[in-house]
């Protein structure tokens, strides 16, 4: 693989609380290649958004990165000063959040917000910035962009607002876009438009995407590779087609079976018993072991490390350890 | 239909969204109305799951609220077991009320945080006089067991439970009145997929055991396909298509249904080419004339702009589209 654009190694994020330290992200490692779309999927509380927030340096205190490193093109960005981080955020890493209404300032017109962002990061005149902004709005599919640019966010519909947010994220031509549940607040018919747009426009500009979502369907349509997160740890990473069609980690398999589909008929959905543990009650060994049907003694005491699998995949599960295979 | 439990005829609901009187006078504006639902007709047979699917603003929840009596309809009738709910007296309505219950979307908002789970579940038993004394506790514990919780949980408060468990409590509460009919308004939308699977399975098991009838409301087409015996598709407050079983998904008739199905992300990775979806749901205060879908419809003809399409028979149900007439 060529040098990754973004490389996260052994990331650990902790929240000190009155009742002890909670470890929300525990040793997460992954890479994003230039131009690649990496899907990050997991249930609520798995740590998807937290990972994204850590990468762009927007971790809310008291949350903090305890160890591990985050590198953008080989350069560490996890311990930069707020001022240095500000130069990267927006310029080199763009963000698209779930709720378009809260990521736009309601008091400023779209034009002002776009031009401000462009001029902060690029050395262009006001008129040139406006021209770029209009072109970008037009590109993201806002009809009559040269007129609508002077509207306020509330004058746009939900889907249109998310288009504006995408334009805002892309206006400084970042190398990486972190999209945190970009379509969760939208209706299905609008969702598919936004997904297509995000995918197209990032491919056009050569930007990599980290797509955070709980929706496997969105991942299947968009991502090249997918990382499945469980209790702040990566259960499985691999190319999206193989992870979806033949999941290896028991959690991924359960997750895939529990999603009703439009093509497959079944009377009952696969059911994973219980729910994800709270952060103060993550069991020893594999975090998934109490819910796993295939767990054995080792799973309860020793935490599985990521095991390399054929087809550029990695799975953190003792079932795939060669030692187990030869013994058992 | 042979033996409908619920029959809805010409159901409509308008909301007054006018500005205050003084503003209207000064700004010379008319009263404004938002038509949340208009002319909705369907019936639900005993023991079946009728699903309503639609995007936000399509009127799904308004219909649910009117059926359980949380909102009075502006026009039309709702017949429960042959009785017109708008015409029955208070005491009869109270007796009818026991026979239908509702499960809401947000289990964080639908349970009183100051009540213990045991009290929440046993309240309908007391209100409707279904059990007395020690029987109440016994029945409450049995209900908790039915939905997969334990009798010990009765002492706890809702905040001690996860979203999925809270939805189980909401189901136990709905079941405690021994209803025949349950309106489920997006019961799993707030839940993670693995928990959603548990709740959907539970709801199906309960239906098999108790012969329940469901009105299942959701925006998620795959969930609807999994649960429904019949499905109605709503667009801007109008029922555009009704179809039996899975045929809606195999052979959609209305252009909107086709578009909606095309928009669902494809987990099967079939790589199918889909028609790109265009536009968004228009503002219901000023809905388009004629067929409400015509501005987004790829096959609209002139007639669609002027005439509201009536409902036509299709191989597996009915659809409101001029092209099918």
Automatic annotation (TrEMBL), chain A:
Q: Which residues form the signal peptide?
A: none
Could you tell me which residue ranges the ABC transporter domain spans? 6-256
What subcellular compartments does it reside in? Cell inner membrane
Q: Which UniProt keywords apply?
A: ATP-binding, Cell membrane, Membrane, Nucleotide-binding, Transport
Residue spans making up a coiled coil are none
Q: Which SMART domains match?
A: AAA
Sample GO molecular function, one term: ATP hydrolysis activity
Which is one Pfam family of this protein? oligo_HPY
Biological process annotations from GO: peptide transport; transmembrane transport
List, alphabetically, the GO terms of the cellular component aspect. plasma membrane
What is the topology of this protein in the membrane according to its UniProt annotation? Peripheral membrane protein
Write down the PROSITE patterns for this protein, in alphabetical order: ABC_TRANSPORTER_1, ABC_TRANSPORTER_2
The UniProt entry, under InterPro entries, shows: AAA+_ATPase (IPR003593), ABC_Ni/Peptide_Import (IPR050388), ABC_transporter-like_ATP-bd (IPR003439), ABC_transporter-like_CS (IPR017871), Oligopep_ABC_C (IPR013563), P-loop_NTPase (IPR027417)
Similarity field: Belongs to the ABC transporter superfamily.
* Protein name (Swiss-Prot/TrEMBL): Methionine ABC transporter ATP-binding protein
Automatic annotation (TrEMBL), chain B:
Q: Which domain of life is it from?
A: Bacteria
Q: Fetch the Gene3D superfamilies from UniProt.
A: P-loop containing nucleotide triphosphate hydrolases
Question: Per UniProt, what is the membrane topology?
Answer: Peripheral membrane protein
Q: Which GO terms describe its biological process?
A: peptide transport; transmembrane transport
Subcellular location field:
Cell inner membrane
Q: What is its main location?
A: membrane
Could you tell me one molecular function GO term of this UniProt entry?
ATP binding
Q: Which InterPro entries match?
A: AAA+_ATPase (IPR003593), ABC_transp_ATP-bind (IPR050319), ABC_transporter-like_ATP-bd (IPR003439), ABC_transporter-like_CS (IPR017871), Oligopep_ABC_C (IPR013563), P-loop_NTPase (IPR027417)
Q: Does the record bear Transport in its keywords? A: yes
Keywords recorded for this protein, A-Z: ATP-binding, Nucleotide-binding, Transport
Question: Which Gene Ontology cellular component terms are annotated?
Answer: plasma membrane
Q: CDD domains, alphabetically?
A: ABC_NikE_OppD_transporters
Task: Tell me which family the UniProt entry assigns to this protein.
Answer: Belongs to the ABC transporter superfamily.
* Protein name (record): ABC transporter ATP-binding protein
* Upper lineage: Bacteria, Pseudomonadati, Pseudomonadota, Alphaproteobacteria, Rhodobacterales
């Amino acid at each position: 693989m060529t040098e990754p654009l973004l490389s996260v190694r052994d990331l650990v994020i902790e929240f000190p609380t009155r009742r002890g330290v909670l470890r929300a992200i525990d040793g997460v490692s992954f890479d994003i290649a230039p131009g690649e779309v990496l899907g990050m999927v997991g249930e609520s509380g798995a740590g998807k958004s937290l990972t994204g927030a850590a990468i762009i340096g927007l971790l809310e205190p008291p949350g903090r990165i305890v160890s591990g490193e985050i590198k953008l093109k080989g350069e560490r960005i996890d311990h930069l000063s707020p001022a240095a981080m500000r130069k990267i955020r927006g310029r080199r890493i763009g963000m698209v959040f779930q709720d378009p209404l809260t990521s736009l300032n309601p008091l400023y017109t779209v034009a002002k917000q776009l031009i401000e962002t462009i001029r902060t990061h690029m050395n262009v005149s006001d008129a040139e910035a406006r021209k770029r902004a209009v072109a970008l709005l037009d590109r993201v599919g806002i009809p009559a962009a040269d007129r609508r640019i002077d509207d306020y966010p509330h004058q746009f519909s939900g889907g249109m607002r998310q288009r504006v947010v995408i334009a805002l994220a892309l206006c400084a031509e970042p190398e990486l876009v972190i999209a945190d549940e970009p379509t969760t607040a939208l209706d299905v018919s609008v969702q598919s438009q936004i997904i297509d747009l995000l995918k197209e426009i990032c491919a056009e500009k050569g930007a990599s995407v980290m797509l955070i979502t709980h929706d496997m369907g969105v991942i299947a349509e968009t991502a090249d590779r997918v990382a499945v997160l469980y209790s702040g740890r990566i259960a499985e990473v691999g190319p999206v087609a193989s992870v979806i069609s033949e999941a290896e980690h028991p959690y991924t398999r359960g997750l895939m079976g529990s999603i009703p589909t439009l093509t497959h008929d079944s009377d009952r959905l696969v059911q994973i018993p219980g729910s994800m543990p709270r952060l103060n009650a993550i069991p020893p060994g594999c975090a998934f072991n109490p819910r796993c049907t295939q767990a054995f003694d080792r799973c309860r005491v020793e935490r599985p490390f990521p095991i390399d699998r054929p087809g550029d995949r990695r799975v953190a599960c003792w079932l795939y350890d060669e030692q187990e295979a030869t013994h058992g | 239909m042979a033996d409908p439990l619920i029959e809805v005829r010409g159901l409509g609901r308008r909301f007054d969204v006018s500005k205050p009187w003084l503003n209207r006078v000064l700004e010379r504006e008319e009263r404004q109305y938002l038509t949340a639902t208009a002319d909705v007709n369907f019936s639900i047979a005993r023991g079946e799951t009728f699903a309503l699917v639609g995007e936000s603003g399509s009127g799904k929840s308004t219909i649910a609220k009117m059926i359980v009596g949380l909102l009075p309809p502006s026009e039309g009738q709702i017949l429960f077991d042959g009785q017109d709910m708008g015409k029955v007296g208070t005491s009869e309505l109270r007796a009818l009320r026991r026979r239908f219950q509702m499960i809401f979307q947000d289990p964080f908002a639908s349970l009183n945080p100051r009540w213990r789970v045991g009290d929440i579940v046993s309240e309908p038993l007391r209100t409707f006089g279904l059990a007395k004394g020690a029987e109440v506790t016994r029945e409450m514990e049995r209900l908790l067991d039915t939905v997969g919780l334990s009798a010990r949980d009765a002492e706890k408060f809702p905040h001690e439970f996860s979203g999925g468990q809270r939805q189980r409590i909401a189901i136990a509460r709905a079941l405690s009145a021994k209803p025949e009919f349950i309106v489920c308004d997006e019961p799993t939308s707030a839940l993670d997929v693995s928990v959603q699977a548990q709740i959907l399975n539970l709801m199906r098991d309960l239906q098999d055991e108790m012969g329940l009838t469901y009105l299942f409301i959701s925006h998620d087409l795959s969930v609807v396909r999994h649960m429904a015996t019949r499905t109605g598709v709503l667009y801007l407050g109008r029922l555009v298509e009704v179809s039996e079983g899975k045929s809606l998904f195999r052979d959609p008739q209305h252009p909107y249904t086709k578009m909606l199905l095309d928009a669902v992300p494809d987990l099967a990775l079939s790589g199918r080419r889909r028609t790109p979806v265009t536009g968004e749901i228009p503002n219901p205060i000023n809905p388009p004339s004629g067929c409400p879908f015509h501005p987004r419809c790829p096959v609209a003809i002139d007639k669609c702009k002027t005439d509201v399409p009536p409902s036509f028979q299709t191989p597996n149900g009915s659809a409101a589209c001029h092209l099918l007439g």
